[in-house]
Amino acid sequence: HVQLVESGGGLVEPGGSLRLSCAATVYSLGIYCMGWFRQAPGREREAVATIEAYGTTTYADSVKGRFTISRDNAKNTVYLQLNSLRSEDTARYYCAAFIHPSAYWGQGTQVTVS
Length: 114
Description:
The protein has strands spanning 3-7, 10-12, 18-25, 33-39, 46-51, 57-59, 67-72, 77-82, 91-99, 102-105, 109-113. By secondary structure, it is mostly beta strands. Strands 2, 4, 5, 6, 9, 10 and 11 form a seven-stranded mixed sheet that branches. A four-stranded antiparallel sheet has the order 1-3-8-7, with no helix packed on it. The model has no long low-confidence stretch (mean pLDDT 95).
């Protein structure tokens, strides 16, 4: 069983930055594909960024060049650096871990850009 705990959210002005962290209680984070997702009120959850076990990353078009996903397997932690934040980035951000056929989700951390 994998438990994920997100932190680092908060209130930030447009143009500001935040770094989200996702701490995983798992034997070896390195075998999991990890991702950050977000959900704004009244909208569906959407993928923001993913990072494969070997480090390959993908990003939503809306965050390319502004957000960076990274992982530290030794610390069982995944990060999402959010730069040049915009009001439309306001959402609850969720960390997820994937290893076929299972998916695990954290409770999320709120990011508000205003």
